Amino acid sequence: MKRGVVVKRGVMAKRVALNGAGLLVALFAAFPVYWMIATSLKPNREIFSATPRPVPTAPTLEHYREILTGNLIPGVTFLDFFLNSVLVAVSTVVLSGLVALLAATAVARFRFRLRTSFLIMLLVVQMIPLEALVIPLFLMIQRLGLYNALPSLILTYLGFSLPFAVWMLRGFVAAVPKELEEAAAIDGASRAQTFRRILFPLVAPGLVATSIFSFITAWNELIFALTFVNDQDRYTLPVAMTFFFGRDDTAWGPVMAASTLFTLPVIVFFLLVQRRMVSGLVAGAVKG
Amino acid sequence: MTSLTQAPETPAARQTPARRRRRVDRLPYLLLLPSLAIIGGLLLWPLGQVVAMSFFRLDNVRQLRGDREWPWVGLGNYAEILGDPFFLTVLRNTVLFAVANVVLTMILGTLVGLLLNRLGRRMATFVASCVMLAWATPALTGTIVWKWLFDDTSGLVTWLFNALPDGLSNALFGRADWTGYGWFNSPLMFFAILTLVVVWHSFPFIAVSVLAGLRSVPSDLHEAARVDGAGPWKVFWKITFPLLRPVFGILVVLSTIWDFKVFTQQFVLAGGTQDRPTFMLSIYSYAEAFSPPPKYGLGAAIAVILTLILLVVTGLYVRMVLKQEEAS
Prior knowledge:
Chain B: It is found in: Cell membrane. Chain B: Belongs to the binding-protein-dependent transport system permease family. The complex is a heterodimer of chains A (288) and B (328). With 288 residues, chain A is mainly α. Chain A is 74% helix and 2% strand. In chain A, helix 3 (62-69) packs across helix 12 (252-281) and helix 4 packs across helix 9. Chain B is mainly α. Chain B has 15 helices and no strands.
C-alpha cells in the first residue's frame, strides 16, 4: 500500500512537470504575438514606462487611429499600402490557382511519359533559393519595362507559389473518385462540362487551401517588393513597414498596431490550413 | 471518350481506341503548358541568368536595360570574392549560423513534439495552438516584435535584466544598469538574438512534424520498452528515433536549406544592409548588387556560390523524398 502511494506521487510529479514544461513552451511561442497586440493597445505612457505592465490597464485604439488616418508618408496612408498588398496577393492567388489546377489535373488524372519528370522538377524548383533570383529577376523586370509597377511582383510571386500549389492540388484532384467523371462522360457530358460541373466543385475546398498558401507567400514577401518598386505610394505593406520603423527612436505603439493588422489575416488563414502544410512538406515521409 | 480519365472499360473507349488515345496523349501536355511556361520563365531561366551574369562586369542599371555593353570578365568576379578575406568571414557566419540554428531548432522541435505526445488532450491542444501562433506569424512582424522586446530603453528584456539583483547582474555580466545597452552592437549578440528569432519561427514546424510521426507509429512498442525498464533517453534512441529516421532526415535537410538563406529576419533586425560584420551569403549578395554603387555581376557570383552549396543539400532531400514516394 505504501508503495502504491509512492508510485502515485511519482506519477503526479511527472504530470506536473510535463504540464509545467507545456506551459513554458506555450509562453515562449505565444508571448511575442501577445506582446505585439498588447503593446498596440497601450497608451504611450504605458509603453515607455519604467515598469512594463503585462496587460494594458487603459486600452486605447489611438495607435490604430493614428496609422489608419495619419499619413505615413505625405499623401499616403496605411490603407494605401494595405490595398497594394491585397491587390498583389489576390492577383497572385487567382492566377496561380487557375494555372495550378490545370497542371494538377494533368498529373493526377493522366499517365503520360513526362509525368514523373514533371513531378521531380516540381520538387527541385521548390528548392531553388529565391534569394539568389533577385538579381536575374531584377534584370528581367527591367527588360520587360515592369520596374516600379506592381505587376512585377504579381509575376514574381506567381512563379514562387506555383510549384507548391501544383504539388498540393494534385492530391485533391486525385482524391475525387474517377467514377464520377466517368459516369458524367457516359451521360454525354463533354470534357469541359465534366471539368466544370464535376471536378471543379469537388476540388474547390482544396483550391481554397492552396490559395491560402499562395496568399501568404505573396503577402509576406519583402525582398523582391523592396527591390522592384521604387515609388513610395506603390510600396506593399512589408516594405512600407521596414521604412516606417527604421528610424532611431521608434514609435512602437503605431508600429505594433501596423504589425497586428498585417499579422492577423495571416494567422487566421494559416490556422485554417496548417494541417495540410505539414503533410505537403513532409510529403509521404510518414506512412499511415 | 469525353472522360478526363483513362478508363478502358467504358464502352466509348472500346469503340474508337485509336482516336481516343491520340486525344488523351495531347491533353495532359496542354494542361501542363502554362505551368511549364511560368516555372521555366520565372524560376529556371533566371537561375541560368544568374550564372550568366556572374561572368560579366555589371555596374550600371543601364546595362541591365540593354542600353550598354556587358564586358565579359570570365571568372573575374569569383576571383575577386574568393580573394577577399571578408568572404571567409561571411562564409563562416553563414555556416556557423546554419549549423547552430539547425541543431537548436531540431532539439527544441523534437522535445516539444515528444512533449505534445505525452500531454493530456486539452493541454496538448492548448500548447499546440500557441506553438501554431509562432509558426503563423510572418517573418517580418515576428522579427519586429523581437526587436521591440530587445529595445534598449523600454524593451521587456532590458527591463528583465534591470530587474535582476544588481550584485548578481554585476557578477554574471559585469554591469547592473542595462538601460541603453546596445543588444545588437556586437556580432555575437546580434547572432544570438537572430538565432532566437529564427528558432522561434521554425521550431513549430519540426514539433508538429515529429508529433505527426509519433502518432503514426504504434504506441505499444514504447509501452513495452518502458515496462521493460528503459528510461526515456533509451526509449528515444532505441525506438522512436529509428522509427522516425526518414522524418528526421527530411526535417534536417529542409531546416538546413532554410537556415542557409535567412534574409528577412536579418534584414529587419539589422535595419538594412549596413552591418557588414554580420553578413551572411544571401544578404551579402543582395548588398553587393543593390547598395550603391551597384555591382550586379559580383552579387550574382555570390548568389551562385550560395546556390551551389544548397544544391548539394537539395540533392540529398530529393533522393529522400523519392525513396519515400516509392516506398508508399
